[in-house]
Write a structure and sequence with these properties.
This protein has 117 residues and is α+β, with helices and mostly antiparallel strands. Helix content is 19%, strand content 40%. It is built from two helices and nine strands. Strands 5, 6, 7, 8 and 9 form a five-stranded mixed beta sheet that branches. A four-stranded mixed beta sheet has the order 1-4-3-2, covered by helices on one side. Strand 8 and strand 9 form a beta hairpin. The termini are far apart. The model has no long low-confidence stretch (mean pLDDT 87).
């Protein structure tokens, strides 16, 4: 019997095309498919599925999901994401191992960014 294999991570969004644009333009994800209710995006082997929320309760002040990304230039990535509607969730931190930042994005999802030293 074959072992299970990872398929994708799913996030709920009010506006799927806007969320797909956010990940595509902000983090260079490839959009494999995008409709008003469903999108599949890819970055290397990682697949991110976006689905329209069945209710208006998708946004919240807590941390709904946290996706962490290694980036080559944290400052330019933060600037791109802010232009697409994200907000820094605290300052960029300059640790001995590199720079880290948390960003609150569309529909309350949080992205962690890491630029190695």
């Amino acid at each position: 019997m074959a072992a299970a294999s990872f398929r994708w991570i799913l996030q709920l969004h009010k506006d799927v095309p806007r969320a797909a644009r956010f990940y595509s333009e902000g983090l260079d994800f490839t959009v494999n498919i995008c409709t008003l209710r469903w999108a599949e995006l890819q970055s290397g082997p990682l697949k991110l599925a976006l689905m329209q929320s069945p209710s208006d309760h998708v946004t919240q002040k807590g941390y709904s999901s946290l996706l962490s990304f290694t980036v080559t230039d944290i400052n330019s990535t933060v600037t791109k994401l802010m232009a697409l509607g994200a907000e820094l969730d605290g300052p960029i931190k300059y640790e001995i191992h590199g720079k880290v930042a948390a960003m609150r994005c569309v529909d309350g999802h949080v992205l962690g960014l890491y630029e190695p030293a």
